């Protein structure tokens, strides 16, 4: 189904301006935000940036000639790189990402712009595979649109045992994973504890009173795991288990850090991660209604995620080395 949809989008894409049709050449360093950043680590990371292009000029995909937006792209990566950089050598491609209005209009899964964004990420990932050590383990990670595209990579390529064997984990944070995804792609496996490998780590954070978002619409169930207690059950993980919410800037610096910020539980009806002990208006955003904590998915649980990257990597290495 996915391949057919992309084929249709490829035909439609013939009508899109040529600036968008020019695929990046990933043999050029200029088309990587990070390439082999942080050597001497035992695990590689292929990291996919979230949405930074707001589509203010009516564009549906980011232009790689837009240096201002590319600076924001690097900044967004810097905000989350601290979760991974102590454990991983980082690779992160520039790509012609979809712009935010496609999410706001709730058409991000049914627009030809998706095929353009995915074409770049797939090409960059294949380049990464070809030009890195085939025996090294790696992590896939993405937030928001980055998570959506990582999920597509998993669906399209990770039925290959050789790739699945090298996968430490895929951190698909801030995107939904549904029963249809798991049924159509049975090789996908969701994380069930803190140290299983070859699995998908995912969650979407919201207030207890939120029942709809552009990421997880009302009536949709998403599979996930609680990043505080690493359980897939609905029991409350108290805020004392939160080892540190870290709020970062575009340089990657931690502007403020707050241990014990929020407790969490997985909603049994939506599968979303409900954050308690905080007030929605304290984490408001012009992009999302109060109570949708999408922008804070990784910041609320920064230290727990940082620790988990190390735990899963060590588990993989202990099993394979």
UniProtKB/TrEMBL annotation:
InterPro entries in the record: AB_hydrolase_fold, DUF3089
Source organism superkingdom: Bacteria
Protein name: DUF3089 domain-containing protein
Biological source species: Candidatus Ornithospirochaeta stercoripullorum
Lineage start: Bacteria, Pseudomonadati, Spirochaetota, Spirochaetia, Spirochaetales
């Amino acid at each position: 189904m996915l391949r057919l949809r992309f084929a249709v989008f490829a035909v439609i894409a013939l009508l899109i301006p040529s600036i968008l049709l020019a695929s990046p050449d990933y043999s050029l360093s200029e088309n990587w935000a990070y390439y082999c950043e942080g050597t001497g680590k035992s695990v590689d990371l292929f990291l996919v940036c979230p949405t930074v292009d707001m589509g203010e000029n009516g564009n549906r995909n980011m232009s790689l000639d837009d240096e201002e937006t590319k600076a924001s792209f690097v900044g967004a990566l810097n905000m989350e790189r601290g979760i991974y950089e102590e454990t991983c050598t980082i690779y992160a491609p520039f790509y012609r990402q979809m712009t935010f209005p496609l999410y706001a209009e709730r058409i991000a899964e049914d627009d030809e712009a998706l095929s353009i964004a995915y074409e770049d990420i797939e090409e960059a990932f294949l380049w990464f595979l070809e030009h890195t050590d085939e025996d090294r383990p790696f992590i896939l990670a993405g937030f928001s649109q980055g998570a959506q595209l990582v999920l597509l990579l998993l669906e399209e390529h990770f039925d290959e045992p050789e790739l699945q064997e090298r996968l430490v984990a895929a951190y698909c944070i801030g995107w939904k994973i549904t029963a249809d995804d798991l049924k159509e792609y049975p090789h996908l496996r969701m994380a069930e504890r803190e140290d299983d490998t070859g699995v998908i780590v995912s969650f979407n954070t919201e207030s207890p009173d939120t029942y709809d978002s552009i990421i997880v619409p009302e009536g949709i169930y998403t599979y996930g795991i609680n990043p505080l207690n690493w359980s897939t059950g609905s029991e409350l993980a108290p805020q004392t288990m939160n080892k540190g919410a870290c709020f970062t800037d575009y340089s990657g610096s931690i502007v403020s850090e707050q241990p014990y910020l929020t407790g969490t539980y997985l909603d049994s009806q939506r599968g979303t991660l409900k954050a308690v002990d905080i007030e929605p208006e304290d984490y408001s955003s012009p992009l999302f209604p109060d109570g949708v904590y999408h922008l804070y998915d990784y910041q609320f649980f920064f230290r727990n995620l940082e620790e988990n990257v190390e735990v899963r990597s060590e588990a993989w290495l202990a099993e394979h080395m």
